[in-house]
Amino acid sequence: MSKGFVLFRCCFLLFLGVFIFHSKTHAQERVISTGVPFLLITPDARAAGMGEQGVATSVDAFSQQWNPAKYVFSEQNSAFAISYTPYLSKLVSDIFLANITYYNKNSERSAWATSLKYFSLGEIVLNDLVAGSIIQQGVERPNELTLDFSYSLLLNSKYSMAVAARFIRSDLKLSSDADASSANTLGVDIAGFYRSDLFDFRENKARLRAGFNISNIGPRLKYDEGGQKNFIPTNLKLGTGLNVHLDANNKISFNVEFNKLLVPTPVAFLDEGTGEVLSYQQPDISFLSGIFESFSDAPDGFSEELKEITWGVGSEYNFQDSFALRGGYFNESLEKGSRRYFTLGAGFSLDFAEIDISYLFSTSKVRNPLENTLRFSIIFNLGNPQVEQLED
After folding, report:
1. Which of 44, 137, 170, 383 measures 20 to 30 Å from 95, CA to CA?
2. In sequence order, what E strands does 61-203 have?
3. Confidence of residue 133 (pLDDT cuts 50, 70, 90)
4. H helices of 83-181, where?
5. At 369, is the pLDDT very low, low, confident or very high (cuts 50, 70, 90)?
6. Per-residue pLDDT at 242
7. Taking the CA of residue 124 as centre, how many other CA atoms within 13 Å lie in the half-sphere pointing to its CB?
8. How far apart, in Å, are the Cα atoms of 139 and each of 143, 295, 379?
């Protein structure tokens, strides 16, 4: 293949997921898109099975990706977790998202965690046409990754907060791109989590949970000199959940979560002569200005702002803390991306590990890049559980 075609294929694979997620119709010119969109892909199968949510669900090792403030309520002293998510598996076989997470409760009131998230865009062979012959020039493997660290602190018996710092690297250049370079930036998360004491709920015991996380607060990405800067996916998550203890062996939870990208709505760029709309692009403003303006910059006012909020509901049934069944639904406005799908999942707990799987069924006319894809994750519990702490 020629270098020109290679460049096209690389860009096609990079942005195809975004275009599928945010497919445009005549009324969808103002769909919000960002750089490094892989940060919005759910990395673990448990959250994926509950409608892609985790900001207020019960704590597990992957809380780093959703709400690190949950770690101080963990019954385990520490855990190590890995996950694997095939991406666009119906089109290619070598694009995937992998995640490694470790957390440790260093005291009754504090915990820390670190994780590495790696997104591979597959292998691209660089060929060139020389004197009528195809000559291989090399192989490129464009990729993106994040490395983050969080610290959480219990403020009182029911409420905790956490901060996280994240290094983001997007290496999408090919050797034939003389002007391109890897893009790097930093992101910060601010999170909080509330977990009530057990209380009477009809004839059972129950526990209420709530959480928030403002994630990926940081400067825009810039790939080359003079090029356009891309906002990273700064995102606000708000959620709540209820755990009901049906009896000594059976528990069920009900969860709901809302998300809003804190990124400016694209604005129209007009032809100076005719006044016609040429394209919609995000304004050239700082990321801090973008966060504040994202709440009130939609051209159609409050009604359009509401359409930029996604929501999900999910439930989890747990038997003897050894087997779990999950289900959920995720919804996005038809004019803002049209992601709509049901999810199913299951989990199995062994003496030393927890294994989770999930599956997605799209209900939208727009095909989801994770449709009909099995996602896997596994958690290895390390250290002794804190038996004196009430179960969630």
Report:
1. 137
2. 76-86, 96-104, 110-120, 124-130, 133-140, 143-154, 159-171, 183-195, 199-201
3. low
4. none
5. confident
6. 96
7. 28
8. 13, 44, 34
pLDDT of residue 239: 96
Q: How many residues does the chain have?
A: 392
CATH domain 3-385 topology: Porin (2.40.160)
Q: Where are the domains of the chain?
A: 3-385
Contacts of 232 (CB under 8 A, 6+ apart): 34, 35, 36, 39, 168, 185, 187, 216, 218, 219, 220, 221, 287
CA 148 to chain centre: 14
CA distances from 117 to 65, 205, 282 (A): 10, 37, 27
Amino acid (one-letter) located at 151: Y
Contact between 192 and 159 under an 8 Å Cβ cutoff? The reply is yes
Q: If pLDDT is split at 50, 70 and 90, which confidence band does 297 have?
A: confident
CA distances from 390 to 60, 75, 320, 352, 362 (A): 15, 8, 15, 20, 38
